[in-house]
Specification:
- This protein is mainly alpha-helical and 123 residues long.
- The chain has a domain of 74 residues.
- The protein is 54% helix and 3% strand.
- It has five helices and two strands; from the N terminus they run H-H-E-E-H-H-H.
- Helix 1 packs across helix 2 and helix 2 runs antiparallel to helix 4.
- The longest helix is centred in the first third of the chain and has 25 residues.
- The two termini are 28 Å apart.
Length: 123
């Protein structure tokens, strides 16, 4: 949970680096909260059945949009890539797979042009 809160505290920080743990824990908790809020929307009746969007889950999705993009950019920085690589996800299927591979890759050892290694280890 601390990793999730760390991302929210760095709400719109696009500079620097984010290690895998920070990115994937944020993604995990983000998905859990999204499912729970979607479930609550369904129970309360605040979901539009035509679009499949609910009020609570929609507000939550908008609230974490910027932090989600920011942590993704920082994760790409950690692998030595520009944040602009995030746009590769716009390419159907292939782009998402390439981006997933980038997010799974380990950090570049030592400092790179985006800052020090967040793991604090220099091998």
């Amino acid at each position: 949970m601390n990793w999730y809160l760390k991302v929210l505290k760095n709400y719109a920080v696009f500079g620097g680096r984010a290690q895998r743990k920070e990115y994937w824990f944020f993604t995990l908790f983000n998905m859990i909260f999204g499912f729970v809020l979607g479930f609550v929307d369904g129970i309360v009746g605040t979901i539009n059945l035509e679009t499949g969007l609910g009020i609570l889950s929609g507000i939550y999705a908008l609230a974490v949009l910027i932090p989600g993009i920011a942590v993704s950019v920082r994760r790409l920085h950690d692998t030595g890539r520009s944040g602009w690589w995030l746009l590769i996800a716009l390419i159907p299927i292939i782009g998402v797979i390439v981006l997933l591979v980038f997010m799974v890759l380990d950090s570049k050892v030592g400092a790179n042009q985006y800052g020090e290694n967040p793991k604090g280890q220099v091998i």
